[in-house]
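Case study 2.
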Amino acid sequence: MGPIGVFDSGYGGLTVLKEIITELPQYEYIYLGDNARTPYGNRGFDTIHAYTLECVQKLFDMGCPLVILACNTASAKALRTIQQQDLPRIAPDKRVLGVIRPTTEMVGTITQTGEVGILATNGTVASESYPIEIKKFFPHVQTYQLACPMWVPLVENNEHENAGADFFVKEYIDKILSYSPNIDTLVLGCTHYPLLMKKIKQYLPGGIAVLSQGKLVGHSLKDYLKRHPEMESRLSRNDNRRFFTTDDPAIFDRMAEIFFGKAVQSEKIDWKQHS
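Prediction:
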């Protein structure tokens, strides 16, 4: 019996963990943020794969039979290789899931016009992961992508609720909507972006749906565990939530409260321990 591991290159995955816990509070969780090497988005495929695999292996060593990549870049650039090539070799009895598929599986059931905007980081946009995955499930849906490079620093500097954020929120919303008058659904393809939700809705015309990943990942995980009782039975049930960072725990704790909505106490990862 072990916890569910949740991995992100930084803090954004805490918005996903928060929603997963809301949906599935009964399980034990370990969160690992690779803050010493963040951001992943501007790194090459091989580096992202190597860093992600190293952190997944660490969560396996800490007893997690199931790991969620709560990071769009890692899900876009490392998940498939880990699932298809690494797991059969290093941990055939364990599973790794991402955040992109749960979101793309829902898009076609929400859009009425069949036109969807994707707001994400440069790395996620360049990977084409959202258009590719959406096409698999809903071939008729037309996607438009836009990178929003100013949104992550706004959140990480705790400026996302201040008046200074309005310019950059409105700029990107206006730009994505200028691609087509028929866009009726926006996907927030970065785990930082839900913290800007209030301002995003403020600058959106009525009738446009905004999809935030956390809730969708929570629903998807609940469904996954129903369909895979053999995995569900391996998960420990207690109120334990542990937080680890590859950087300074004091900095992590201060930042984490913004994303998680409550105070956390983290530990610095010890690479020697458990391995």
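The longest helix spans residues 45-61.
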